[in-house]
């Protein structure tokens, strides 16, 4: 028979509730059985690359839809439109990612960046496709940060940035990285952005799987950072892998894992 | 040779008029055996044909004629050519199956005509004439020949030696016949056994007969059982003189079946005649109408047809207008519990704003409606059964998760707008099977009519998602649900998926079929006078497929005809009939 758990909000764990109390700006997507089944597929070590990509894309799609759905009301403009039946409909519209102001005095176009995405290379790039499938014209910047495997606590190192113009004026920046383990790369990415003049209120960190240690470290540094995550796992092991986790996300998504 | 029937799943509803136009010699009795089913061992069959000892009145050709679910009158000279193809006739006056259920979704019983008469009395001709004159597209013909008992080896031997009496009530499996006829009368889909007259056993495959508004049942022992007589709404006895029947039988058996005159006469005197006197003639007293001279008796046929038409009109079901009437009572009630509305956030409102806006172009309309559909199908999947599962992660730890219970899932889209939801469903559930139903509005009555359906074979034990982009009055969705129920799908396993529903549609469906889940992304309060959802989003199919010429053909001459259509088929869930009168499909195509 049909599943009895029909409530989309039914899937919140008790530990998640505590975390939400602890960090008011943390949003954890409530997992329906369907999403939980996708998570299960991702975590299964026998899932091959092809399946992994498919299920991860689905999860990311749903996570990004969730992110858009919890944007505050000032991201939506109230708008009344006419339906084809010639009836007015009170609706709303999401602010466009770039708005153009025609400056009449000197006849130039000023563009205003509203929404943009930034992916942390390499694993974060797996979420770009999902973002593009929701907002096709969203500008996407990149930050290349790698964990330096030779340092003792796997320190993150910044290699490269290429960001949209006027990023400091952006209303919201979606920073994307599927895994939040030690939080090193996340902190470094935010540090880079803040150095450029972005404020912490402008950043939303979108993340597929987090762990309490990572959350604690990031929130200790940036208490006002908004984090949206799909699942908070148990913790980290001594090699800084999330447990139970899914292994190295980038390797599994891009198929570069050496058997 | 390809068996003409078994692979053809399409249920074809057709109007006999078109056949008259297309095939003038369809009723000719010139029968050739070569084109009938003989899928296995052609050589053996050839010898079997010679010692074929059937004693009934029906030619084998006629069996083929009945083998199609809904009869296609192609018996005759052209049949060989026709069997290799599956032909769908749609008449010039385009008609589908009108509703066969009332507003609460309950089926009305089919009108069953029983035709009895001696061997070679012309029962089949009468049945054909009735169908022809009735001009009702949904008629099922059931012949008693399918219900001969399976013979034991000994009896089989007797039959081969011309010693088995096929003209006796004991030769028929009345239990199975009664059950089949009961189901057929209740509009259910039934499996008809196929009797093989060479082996005197049933084929291991059956033919499926779909419920119809009129069922014609004919056979020599049609009135022999009391239970069966009680199922018949009208009993017709075809009374043809014995000498004429013998003459016909001689002609048929000798010229068409190549049998010896002695054998035929011997059989007639030993079995056929006593059987008529003992079992068939006495049942004449049960008949409502006795038709002398069989099929040539035009007046009698006219009488029958008029009576049936009157009866059909009496039980004529005006679902759509009834639905509107019924809503007056329903609208005070709360929304049914089976209604699942996607969580209403600014984001869903934003998506709806785009697709509802009449200024939205096609590319945006498609993009944003696809997004909504994805949300809708993902939400629907959460209602499927799940079970706990433990997997091992790369760190060697176990992870407690969930997985879909191995359940068959099937999507049934209501052509055309419902088809837009198919990609979204396939994307989230990879091995979903897709069936299709074509329902269109009758332009004169405004009633929905079923024109085509093709469903997966194992649909009866699947979870079924009915896909339709919008639900206005719910008339089309109700018909689709009724079709599924008639195909023995459990009501609890049906869910209706839609982007936009009207309150009225939800209440109509929800209270008629209270176990059917209705899943939608938005619900509008009202319908306007033309049954459009208000504020709605216009005709979804037209906007998605770009067939609304409103933007670029304001000055074209077909504007009037377009307007006419929209007057008649106001709702989005029912689209105007196509204009092409005849569609032909290769059987190969239809099998894909």
From TrEMBL, chain A:
Where in this chain does the record put each Phosphoribosyltransferase domain? 33-256
Record's keyword annotation contains Plastid = no
| Cofactor(s) listed | Mg(2+)
**InterPro entries named in the record:** PRTase-like, PRTase_dom
**Which GO molecular-function terms appear in the entry?**
GTP binding; uracil phosphoribosyltransferase activity
What GO biological process terms are annotated to this protein in UniProt? pyrimidine-containing compound salvage
The record ties this protein, via SUPFAM superfamilies, to:
PRTase-like
Q: What class of enzyme is it?
A: transferase
> One Pfam annotation, family name?
UPRTase
Q: Pathway, per Swiss-Prot/TrEMBL?
A: Pyrimidine metabolism; UMP biosynthesis via salvage pathway; UMP from uracil: step 1/1
Q: Please indicate if the UniProt record lists GTP-binding as a keyword.
A: yes
The protein's Enzyme Commission number:
2.4.2.9
UniProt superkingdom: Eukaryota
The protein's UniProt keywords, in alphabetical order, are:
Allosteric enzyme, Glycosyltransferase, GTP-binding, Nucleotide-binding, Transferase
Which family does the UniProt entry place this protein in? Answer: Belongs to the UPRTase family.
Q: What name is this protein filed under?
A: uracil phosphoribosyltransferase
Recorded source organism is Didymodactylos carnosus
Cite the source lineage: Eukaryota, Metazoa, Spiralia, Gnathifera, Rotifera
From TrEMBL, chain B:
Question: Which lineage is the organism of this entry classified under, starting from the top rank?
Answer: Eukaryota, Metazoa, Spiralia, Gnathifera, Rotifera
EC number annotated for this UniProt entry: 2.7.1.48
Q: Which reaction does it catalyse?
A: uridine + ATP = UMP + ADP + H(+); cytidine + ATP = CMP + ADP + H(+)
Q: Name one GO biological process term.
A: UMP salvage
Gene3D superfamilies cross-referenced by the UniProt entry: 3.40.50.2020, P-loop containing nucleotide triphosphate hydrolases
Compartment(s) of residence: Cytoplasm; Nucleus
The UniProt entry, under NCBIfam families, shows: PRK05480.1 (NF004018), udk (TIGR00235)
Keyword field contains Kinase: yes
Q: Answer yes or no on keyword rRNA-binding.
A: no
Q: Which UniProt keywords are listed?
A: ATP-binding, Cytoplasm, Kinase, Nucleotide-binding, Nucleus, Phosphoprotein, Transferase, Ubl conjugation
Q: Which GO terms describe its cellular component?
A: cytoplasm; nucleus
Q: Which family does it belong to?
A: Belongs to the uridine kinase family.
The record ties this protein, via SUPFAM superfamilies, to: P-loop containing nucleoside triphosphate hydrolases, PRTase-like
Which purpose does this protein serve, as stated in its record?
May contribute to UTP accumulation needed for blast transformation and proliferation.
Biased composition of type Basic and acidic residues is found at: 561-572
Stated name of the protein:
Uridine kinase
What pathway does the UniProt record associate with this protein? Pyrimidine metabolism; UMP biosynthesis via salvage pathway; UMP from uridine: step 1/1; Pyrimidine metabolism; CTP biosynthesis via salvage pathway; CTP from cytidine: step 1/3
């Amino acid at each position: 028979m049909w599943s009895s758990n029909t409530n989309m909000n039914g899937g919140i764990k008790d530990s998640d509730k505590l975390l939400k109390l602890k960090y008011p700006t943390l949003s954890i997507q409530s997992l329906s059985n369907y999403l939980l089944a996708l998570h299960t597929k991702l975590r299964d070590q026998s899932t091959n690359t092809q399946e992994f990509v498919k299920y991860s894309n689905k999860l990311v799609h749903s996570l990004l839809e969730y992110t858009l759905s919890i944007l505050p009301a000032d991201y939506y403009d109230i708008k009344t439109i006419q339906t084809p039946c010639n009836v007015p409909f009170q609706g709303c519209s999401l602010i466009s990612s770039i708005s153009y102001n025609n400056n009449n005095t000197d006849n130039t176009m000023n563009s205003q960046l509203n929404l943009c995405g930034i992916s942390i290379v390499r694993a974060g790039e797996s979420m770009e496709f999902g973002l593009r499938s929701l907002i096709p014209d969203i500008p996407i910047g990149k930050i290349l940060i790698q964990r330096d495997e030779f340092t003792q606590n796997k320190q993150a190192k910044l290699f490269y940035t290429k960001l949209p113009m006027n990023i400091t004026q952006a209303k919201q920046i979606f920073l994307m990285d599927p895994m939040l383990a030690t939080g090193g790369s996340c902190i470094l990415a935010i540090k880079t952005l803040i150095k450029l003049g972005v404020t912490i209120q402008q950043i939303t960190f979108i993340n597929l799987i987090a762990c309490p240690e990572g959350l604690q470290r990031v929130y200790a540094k940036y208490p006002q950072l908004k984090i949206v995550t799909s699942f908070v796992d148990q913790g980290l092991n001594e090699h800084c892998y999330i447990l139970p986790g899914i292994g190295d996300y980038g390797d599994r998504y891009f198929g570069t894992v050496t058997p | 040779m390809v068996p003409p029937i078994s692979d053809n799943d399409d249920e074809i509803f057709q109007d006999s008029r078109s056949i008259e136009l297309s095939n003038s010699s369809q009723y000719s009795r010139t029968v050739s055996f070569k084109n009938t089913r003989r899928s296995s061992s052609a050589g053996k069959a050839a010898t079997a044909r010679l010692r074929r000892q059937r004693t009934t009145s029906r030619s084998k050709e006629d069996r083929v004629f009945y083998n199609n679910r809904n009869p296609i009158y192609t018996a005759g000279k052209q049949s060989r050519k026709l069997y290799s193809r599956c032909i769908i006739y749609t008449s010039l006056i385009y008609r589908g199956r009108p509703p066969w259920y009332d507003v609460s979704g309950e089926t009305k019983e089919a009108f069953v005509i029983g035709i009895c008469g001696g061997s070679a009395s012309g029962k089949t001709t009468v049945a054909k004439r009735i169908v022809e004159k009735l001009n009702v597209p949904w008629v099922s013909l059931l012949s008693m020949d399918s219900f001969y008992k399976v013979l034991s080896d000994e009896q089989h031997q007797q039959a081969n030696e011309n010693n088995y009496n096929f003209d006796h009530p004991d030769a028929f499996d009345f239990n199975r016949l009664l059950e089949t006829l009961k189901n057929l009368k209740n509009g259910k889909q039934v499996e008809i056994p196929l009797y093989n007259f060479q082996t005197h056993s049933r084929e291991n495959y059956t033919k499926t007969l779909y419920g119809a508004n009129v069922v014609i049942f004919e056979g020599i022992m049609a009135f022999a059982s009391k239970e069966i007589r009680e199922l018949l709404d009208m009993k017709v006895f075809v009374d043809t003189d014995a000498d004429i029947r013998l003459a016909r039988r001689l002609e048929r058996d000798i010229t068409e079946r190549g049998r010896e005159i002695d054998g035929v006469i011997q059989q007639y005197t030993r079995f056929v005649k006593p059987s008529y006197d003992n079992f068939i003639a006495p049942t004449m007293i049960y008949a409502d109408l006795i038709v002398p001279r069989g099929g040539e008796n035009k007046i009698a046929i006219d009488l029958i047809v008029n009576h049936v038409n009157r009866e059909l009109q009496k039980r004529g079901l005006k679902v759509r207008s009834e639905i509107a009437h019924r809503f007056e009572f329903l609208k005070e009630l709360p929304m049914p519990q089976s209604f699942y509305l996607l969580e209403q956030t600014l984001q869903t409102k934003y998506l709806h704003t785009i697709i509802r806006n009449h200024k939205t172009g096609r590319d945006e309309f498609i993009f944003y409606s696809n997004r909504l559909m994805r949300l809708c199908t993902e939400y629907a999947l959460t209602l499927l059964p799940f079970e706990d599962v433990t997997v091992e992660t790369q760190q060697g730890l176990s992870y407690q998760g969930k997985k879909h219970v191995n359940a068959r899932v099937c999507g049934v889209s209501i052509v055309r707008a419902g088809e837009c939801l198919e990609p979204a469903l396939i994307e989230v559930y990879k091995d979903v099977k897709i069936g299709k139903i074509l329902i269109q509005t009758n332009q004169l009555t405004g009633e929905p009519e079923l024109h085509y359906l093709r469903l997966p074979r194992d649909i009866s034990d699947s979870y079924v998602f009915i896909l339709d982009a919008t639900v206005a009055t719910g008339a089309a969705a109700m018909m689709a649900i009724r079709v599924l129920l008639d195909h023995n799908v459990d009501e609890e396993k049906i869910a209706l998926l839609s982007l936009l529903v009207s309150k009225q549609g939800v209440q109509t469906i929800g209270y008629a079929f209270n176990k059917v889940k209705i899943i939608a992304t938005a619900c509008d309060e009202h319908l306007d006078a033309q049954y459009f959802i208000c504020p709605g989003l216009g005709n979804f199919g037209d906007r998605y497929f770009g067939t609304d010429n409103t933007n670029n053909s304001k000055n074209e001459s077909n504007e009037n005809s377009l307007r006419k259509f929209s007057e008649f088929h106001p709702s989005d869930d029912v689209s105007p009939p196509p204009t092409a009168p005849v569609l032909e499909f290769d059987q190969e195509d239809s099998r894909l």
